[in-house]
Structure formats: C-alpha cells, structure tokens
Amino acid sequence: MLPLVLYDIPSNVKGGHYSPNTTKTRQVNPCYKGLPFEIDWVEHPDIAPRMKEFGVAPSKLPDGSETYTLPVLHDPNTGALVTDSFEIAVYLDNAYPEKPVFPKDTEGLIRVFADVYTDQLMPAIKFLIVRAVEIMREPSAQCYITTKEKCFNQNLAEFSPEGPERDKHWSILEKGFVMTKRWSPCLDKVTATGNCWHFFVIREYVGLKWRSMLLVQLLRQRDQLDAFGRVQAYPQDKVPAVYDGAIVWYGKTNGKWLMGDTFSYADIIAATSRLFWFKKVLHDDEWKRIAAWHDGQWERLLADVESECKVVQ
Ligand SMILES: N[C@@H](CCC(=O)N[C@@H](CS)C(=O)NCC(=O)O)C(=O)O
C-alpha cells in the first residue's frame, strides 16, 4: 500500500502540528487505523495556491467566493483527494473499514455532535486566535492575522484584551464543559435575533449508550456562516446556554467513551477540537487552569484518546 499524504500546517510547537482539524485526521489515520502516511507541510499563504494546483475542490464562502482549508488527504491508492476533517474520516472508514471510527452507523449522530461541540467554542474564538498566532511560523502568522482582522473588522490587539473581554472568553470556554441551562427557556431569546434555529433531540438510540443524550442542532442560515462554515452571527454570549455541556454528555455513559465502551470519532472530536488545541496554543498556566476543571476530567480525556489512537508525543 502506498502511503497516504496528509497536508498539514506547521508551527513552532513540538511536533509541528497544532491545528485541531488536521490533528483529527492524524488521529484517525495514521494513529488509530495505523495506515502508512506522509505529511506535506503547507504554510497558510500557500494553502490556496497549492490546493488549486492539485485540483482540490474549494469550499464556498457566503459571498460566493472560494476558500481552501486544511486538512486535505490524498490517497494515491485510490486517487481520492478529500478535504474537510469530517469528510476525510468518513472516507477513511469507507475505504479502510478496519477499526471504524463511525461504529454501528453513527456517522449521522456524530455529524450533529461535531457541529454542536464546535459551535459552543465559537464565541471565544478570538482568544484562541490570539494565542494560535503566537505559535505560528512567520509566513503563516502574518497571513492569518490579515485574514482574521478582515473577517472580524478589528485589530488583533482588540480581539481578546485582558480584562472583562478576556474574562468573558474564559467563561465561555468553561461553559462548554459544564451543565448549562436547558434549551427551552432560551428559545425565545435566540429566535428573537432572527436566526433560524432547529432543535433536535436524540433519545433512546436503541442498543447504544446514547440513550439519554440530548443534542441540539442548529439549522443555520447560510449567510451567517463564516469563512470556515461556522456560525458567526449568533448572539455570541447566549449560544452556550442553549446546550448541555461535555460533562453532561460524558456523564451519561457507563464507559470511558461517549458511546460507553465503544471508541468513536466523537471522542476524537471531543478531545481534539478543544483540548488538544488548548494545550498546544494556550500558555502553560492557561492550560493548567483548564486541566484543573472538573477534577482533571478533560486532561484525562485527552490522554485517553491519545493513548487509544496511539499518538506518539
Ligand atoms: N471544516 C473544516 C475546517 C478546516 C479549517 O478551518 N482549517 C484551517 C486550519 S485549522 C485552515 O486551513 N485555514 C486556512 C486559512 O486560514 O488560510 C475541517 O474540519 O477540515
């Protein structure tokens, strides 16, 4: 078998990789599935030209323009060229079904979970952008700052200044993990903003441990998505109150994983979309603060997922 090629973004941290999206792909393959692979490093300003050259399909921005993001996976064995971390995980499960990350047809459920889990973080994203820039290499940092300043129409220095704004971001990060208010009391507030919301409750998923898990799905108006397909026009400080948090979801299972004893891509998302990223980009004292929440539960989850995926540090 020829090695798969994963396009990833380098940085100054140990091991180079820091992006939560490319790292989810690393954790599925090679780490979990153990398939041979090669990394091709691409700095931010080179992503679009290089992906165009390879013939990768771009994603569409709300204004109709095109964007290119990583991860992209090239499988020389099949000729497949796949973009988006979730789609790559689906591709790998279909092409290499041994050790599935969507066991028992859970792709649909995990897709919903991925959206909810990622969206909870969005209102605090500017704090993470400030920290991510600090660990990027020069060409990427400059390009990233320019893109994000344009996107938020603000200077980087105003993204998450120490004080009330930074405190608000911290409380959003923490809320993503804790039991929050149930969604119904928030419904009026949310719909009053003109956003289009759709609530989606999953119960009694027969035969699996998801039985009492409550998920909320957003039906998003396309023109409210940012460059990476994420909601940006929602009422920033209200959204996290709409969901239950990770501690509730993990508290509903009897095993170590979200699906009880069955490891899945949902656990990779839970650990990597937040915890891996926090640990890589935040300052040591900031990561220690998160690692101390809920009796160290999140640091343990990250370690468990990395061990399950046989990640080499
Ligand atoms: N939904 C995509 C999002 C990918 C994404 O946002 N990738 C970032 C790196 S973490 C990127 O490539 N950004 C390109 C840029 O900012 O130029 C996925 O899951 O793969």
What features would you describe in this structure?
The chain is α+β, with helices and mostly antiparallel strands and 313 residues long. It has one domain (4-195, 226-309): Glutaredoxin (3-Layer(aba) Sandwich). The protein is 43% helix and 7% strand. It is built from twelve helices and six strands. It has helices spanning 20-32, 44-54, 85-95, 107-119, 125-135, 138-152, 164-175, 187-192, 246-251, 265-281, 284-292, 297-308; strands at residues 4-8, 37-41, 59-60, 66-67, 72-75, 80-83. Strands 2-1-5-6 form a four-stranded mixed beta sheet, covered by helices on one side. A two-stranded antiparallel ribbon has the order 3-4. It starts with a strand and ends in a 5-residue tail after the last helix. 38% of the residues are buried. Mean pLDDT is 81; it is low at 180-242. The structure holds glutathione (GSH). Residues 9, 19, 21, 44, 47, 69-71, 84-86, 144, 147, 228-229 line the site of glutathione.
Cα distance spanning the termini: 25 Å
CATH class: Alpha Beta
Q: Decide which structural class fits the backbone.
A: alpha+beta
Bound molecules: glutathione
Query: Per DSSP, what share of the residues sits in E-state strands of 2 or more residues?
Result: 5-15%
CATH topology, anyone? Glutaredoxin
| Number of self-contained structural domains | 1
Number of strands: 6
As a percent range, the share of helical residues equals 40-55%
Unreliable stretches (pLDDT < 50, length at least 5) are 180-242
Shape from CA axes? Answer: globular
Biggest sheet descriptor:
4 strands, mixed
Give, in spatial order, the strands making up the sheet with the most strands.
2-1-5-6
Overall pLDDT level: 81
The CATH homologous superfamily is termed Glutaredoxin
**Number of helices, where a helix is a run of at least 4 consecutive DSSP H or I residues:** 12
**CATH architecture tag:** 3-Layer(aba) Sandwich
Pfam families: GST_C_7, GST_N_2
InterPro entries: Glutathione-S-Trfase_C_sf (IPR036282), Glutathione_S-Trfase_N (IPR004045), GST_UstS-like_C (IPR054416), Thioredoxin-like_sf (IPR036249)
Domain GST N-terminal: 32-94
Domain Glutathione S-transferase UstS-like C-terminal: 109-183, 243-306
